[in-house]
Design brief:
Blueprint (H helix, E strand, L loop, with lengths): L4 H4 L21 E5 L11 E5 L4 H9 L5 E5 L5 H5 L3
Antiparallel strand pairs: 1-2, 1-3
């Protein structure tokens, strides 16, 4: 009764990021911040998360559309960055 699931997960990181690629459940190590100039305001950036395997796939997907983007380590993401603002 006093046992908790959290206790059994001791050592797990407080924050985990999951790859944004459809169907992929891998932990993401990198984040891609991007925006579509046609529909997003200049200060509106989206954030995709990518595991090592899908980073190139996702980056190429956006680059092929000439969207501005930048790749940053998830460690450098803030809470604000992952949700793209309020
Ligand atoms: Zn992935």
């Amino acid at each position: 009764m006093s046992g908790s699931l959290a206790a059994s997960l001791g050592g797990a990181p407080a924050l985990t990021y999951e790859c944004s690629r459809a169907g992929c459940r891998e932990a993401a190590g990198q984040a891609i911040r991007w925006r579509n100039p046609k529909i997003h305001a200049e200060d509106r950036w989206k954030t995709w998360l990518a595991c090592d395997e899908h980073l190139e796939f996702l980056r190429e997907f956006l680059a092929a559309r000439s969207f501005p983007l930048e790749v940053v380590p998830v460690a450098e993401l803030s809470d604000r960055a992952t949700e793209g603002g309020r």
